[in-house]
Design a protein that fits this description.
single chain; 564 residues; mainly alpha; Growth Hormone, Chain: A; two-stranded antiparallel sheet
Length: 564
């Protein structure tokens, strides 16, 4: 650690407690709606297309706007953007709770996505600028990651409890007191910070980033829901092309929205990839475990939520241990071990046999959550530590895009694997004599199969229900083993790509130090006064480095980068 690096005071830790509020809430909100969908369908009677948009519009808006909102926070102030997002999130929650039509609920879910896109990068970038000491920052990010993971695990419990006693709008109203508390406490506990020299805002880059993300997420999710077809593939291809145009534009700009040179660092690229794959597996598994508990094991939503408590405890424990372990063990071994632990959890989940016993499910989800949270905590810290403090919002947005895209890919890839196995098994093992239309409906989803079975006479209905549950369980097993294999492969890559990264070593600046133009005087240290209060300069140690040669010359403390 650099002895000149200031340590955070008590007020910063109070501010961290405030920052946990939106993280926990956004994470809960991402996982609670699925439990309310049957009640929403009965109340608002949306069409199948409208129901799909009710589900999809939130992650679409969230993923598409993260990078733009992170960049905007660097310019106007991260605390200001956080307060704007909290207000938007609260208003949208109130409107969503009392929506009287499917169209109104879709619009409010879009506004929720906008609010969430401002909240997530603001919280992480504020942490980057509040905690400059490497050890303190790692602890703060561990708390942040623990809150995010706990929200994902506790969402089903809260959703089940609310929906057993209240109407479906209650899952939105719980956001209001939390957002009100955030708006009241943030101005007195959180310091404002921004990029002192942001340069012009590139509207075209913002449009291109949104235009690239939305088609990509749309295509991935619709392949998971409807199978491979021409339309989602074409839409995905269009998104990838626009993403290529976006990256080409960033390379040509003097002050890009996203500095693509960050990806030259193996540590940064490996951290982003590990983060994406960790969320991929965690979100993809939840698609199966929630259905297994309610439709195969036959437990109530609230009881299903209780089964998630051990996983939430494992996630919070892993987040607390991560900053301690990474001080003693190289990041390559921590990340690699976390991925292997997660793979073991998926192997346990693959042992589910379709019976009512859920011991393997509880053990598997807890093991998986502990290992993946360990990975997410360390990789998130390495990603944000790479960023200069003045660009923390942009890199935080990129980190969250990796999270969102990983979740969408997890649902698509693992969901497609499970669906393919389910449809194949049910086609072979369904009871004879079923009408083709009923069999085709049963092959859509497990829920559809159970609905069809309930309308049939007793014997063929029970036979169809048993066959569909067995087919779903087989699909779950194959999907879980697929996730285990992917995590094991990523563990090998992490051991390789992160092997030279050490905690506490001075990190090499990406791309080296820009040369000082001829004839220009060397910038004076006094220029650092233009930076945000308490913000170290770009040349400060990040806490992660190769541990080898120092590479290009590092700027002295207080020295600003030379003009381009």
């Amino acid at each position: 650690m650099n002895p000149a690096t200031p340590r955070a005071a008590r007020k910063a830790w109070l501010g961290l407690a405030v920052l946990v509020l939106p993280v926990l809430l956004v994470s809960l909100d991402m996982h609670v709606l699925s439990y309310a969908l049957p009640m929403i369908s009965a109340s608002l009677e949306p069409s199948s297309s409208q129901l799909l948009w009710i589900i999809d519009i939130y992650p679409f808006m969230l993923a598409g706007l993260l990078l733009t909102m992170g960049t905007l926070g660097d310019r106007i102030g991260r605390r200001k953007l956080l307060l704007f997002g909290a207000a938007a999130f609260g208003i949208a929650s109130a409107c969503g709770a009392y929506s009287d039509s499917a169209e109104m609920l879709i619009a409010t879910r879009a506004l929720l996505g906008l609010g969430g896109a401002t909240l997530m990068p603001s919280t992480l970038s504020l942490i980057r600028n509040m905690f400059h000491d490497d050890g303190q920052r790692r602890v703060a990010i561990a708390v942040w990651t623990g809150a995010f993971a706990a929200g994902a695990m506790l969402g089903p419990l809260m959703g089940g409890a609310l929906l057993e006693h209240f109407w479906w709008g209650s899952v939105f109203l719980v956001n209001l007191p939390v957002m009100a508390l955030l708006v009241l406490l943030a101005p007195v506990t959180l310091p404002e910070s921004r990029d002192p020299d942001p340069g012009p805002f590139d509207l075209l880059s913002a449009v291109l980033s949104l235009a690239a993300m939305l088609p990509a997420i749309y295509g991935v999710q619709h392949i998971a829901q409807d199978g491979v077809s021409v339309t989602p593939l074409v839409v995905m291809a269009a998104g990838l092309f626009l993403g290529y145009v976006f990256l080409r534009r960033q390379k040509s700009l003097a002050q890009p929205m996203l500095d693509v040179k960050l990806f030259r660092g193996k540590g940064f690229t490996a951290s982003v990839t590990a983060n994406t794959l960790g969320v991929f597996s965690m979100v993809g598994s939840s698609l199966f475990t929630t259905q297994y508990l309610q439709m195969v094991a036959g437990v109530r939503p609230f009881v299903a939520g209780l089964y998630a408590l051990p996983a939430a405890g494992a996630a919070m424990t892993a987040a607390a241990l991560a900053p301690i372990v990474v001080r003693r063990v190289r990041p390559a071994f921590v990340v690699g071990a976390g991925l292997l632990i997660g793979a073991v959890g998926f192997v346990l989940l693959g042992r589910l046999d379709g019976g009512t016993g859920v011991a393997a499910l509880v053990a598997g989800t807890a093991t998986m959550a502990g290992g993946i949270t360990l990975v997410l905590t360390v990789s998130s810290d390495m990603i944000i530590a790479t960023a200069p403090p003045e660009k923390a919002g942009t890199v935080s947005g990129l980190s969250q895009i990796a999270t969102e895209f990983g979740g969408a890919l997890g649902i698509s890839v693992l969901g497609s694997v499970g669906t393919a196995v389910y449809r194949s098994d049910l086609a072979e093992n369904a009871p004879g004599g079923l009408e083709p239309t009923l069999l085709e409906s049963a092959r859509d989803t497990l829920g559809s199969a159970l609905d069809v079975a309930a309308r049939l006479p007793r014997d063929p209905g029970e036979a169809l229900a048993a066959a569909s549950r067995a087919a779903f369980t087989h699909g779950l097993q194959i999907a879980m083993y697929t996730a285990a294999g992917l995590l094991a492969l990523m563990a090998l890559l992490a051991f390789t790509l992160l092997r030279r990264v050490r905690v506490g070593a001075r990190a090499e600046p990406v791309g080296g130090t820009p040369p000082r133009p001829a004839g220009r005087p060397r910038p004076r240290p006094a220029a650092a006064a233009h930076a945000a209060p308490g913000t170290p300069e770009h040349g400060a140690p990040t806490g992660y480095g190769t541990g080898g040669r120092q590479g290009p010359r590092h700027r002295r403390d207080g020295e600003r980068p030379a003009p381009r």
